Structure to design on (314 residues):
């Protein structure tokens, strides 16, 4: 699961074309080119035995999978049933489209027509399998809110109890908002997410492995000039992931919402709280003991951060 957390943070699933005739597919993880990141991607490539390592002007290192058979196997056997629990829906839909197009050998013209008429995808991929939303069962995370799943009986039973999480908050350029702008103070969505996420030992294990990869991609261990340390993590256009992380570590801090130049919303949470930092360290040490710990440049950053924290305690 580490790999898929890393993919959500620093990866992409691409459907391109050659001269508007043939569809081309790529799964890419792109990282800053450092010895630690190169080593990590080489380990992942060797573990899955697919793809190749490439370098972009010595600034970035990329793990690229572009063989259709390898991509299809990767989707079916590695990002399949269990892994789909943790994907953002936009990414998940791209994966399902990619799988369908490869299996059916779809040509560019047909793909473009379906993209221009999204309702045509409905019977092909948008009837989500049960594993797609099992982490939020009987609700599904769709777009920017939680809504009842398509099962009519479940929908009727739960319609009165479902709380929609609408993220249509207005954000001004340069402004910083908090989760209070999104969540009503009486909302129990926080408790709901944690209960569902950790409702079984199996789900908790999958989440913890996935989270480690996501921290490798999006986490940040900071040492300020004042000597204070902090941990922060962010994600564009996905409030639920950051909210789940906040709840998992029981962080007392609010989630901040920033408007990026691309007009996307960035959700960020940062903590200086000693108790919270201790929980995060304890979690990362536990994952390290299971050989699922940080592997790349983030591991080096974490080691420096830990060393500084231990000095401050003396």
């Amino acid at each position: 699961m580490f790999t898929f957390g890393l993919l959500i943070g620093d990866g992409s699933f691409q459907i391109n074309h050659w001269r508007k005739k043939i569809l081309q597919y790529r799964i890419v993880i792109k990282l800053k080119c450092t010895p630690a990141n190169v080593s990590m991607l080489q380990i992942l490539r060797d573990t899955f035995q697919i793809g190749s390592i490439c370098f972009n002007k010595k600034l970035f290192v990329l793990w690229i999978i572009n063989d259709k058979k390898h991509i299809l196997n990767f989707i079916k056997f590695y990002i399949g049933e269990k892994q789909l629990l943790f994907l953002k829906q936009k990414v998940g839909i791209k994966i399902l489209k990619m799988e369908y197009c490869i299996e059916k050998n779809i040509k560019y013209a047909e793909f473009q027509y379906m993209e221009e008429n999204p309702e045509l995808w409905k019977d092909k991929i948008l009837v989500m399998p049960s594993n797609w939303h099992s982490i939020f069962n009987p609700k599904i995370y769709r777009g920017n809110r939680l809504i009842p799943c398509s099962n009519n009986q479940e929908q009727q039973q739960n319609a009165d109890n479902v709380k929609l999480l609408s993220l249509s908050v207005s954000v001004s350029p340069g402004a910083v908002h908090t989760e209070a702008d999104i969540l009503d103070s009486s909302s129990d969505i926080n408790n709901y997410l944690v209960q569902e996420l950790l409702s079984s030992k199996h789900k908790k294990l999958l989440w913890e492995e996935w989270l480690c990869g996501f921290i490798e991609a999006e986490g940040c261990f900071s040492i300020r000039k004042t000597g204070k340390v902090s941990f922060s993590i962010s994600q564009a256009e996905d409030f639920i992931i950051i909210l789940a992380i906040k709840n998992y570590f029981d962080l007392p801090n609010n989630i901040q919402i920033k408007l990026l130049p691309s007009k996307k919303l960035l959700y960020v949470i940062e903590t200086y709280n000693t108790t919270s930092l201790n929980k995060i360290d304890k979690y990362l040490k536990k994952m390290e003991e299971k050989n699922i710990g940080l592997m790349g440049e983030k591991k080096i950053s974490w080691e420096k951060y830990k060393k500084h924290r231990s000095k401050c305690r003396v």
Notes: Residues 127-171 have pLDDT under 50 and may be disordered. The first helix runs from residue 2 to 10. The chain has twelve helices and eleven strands.
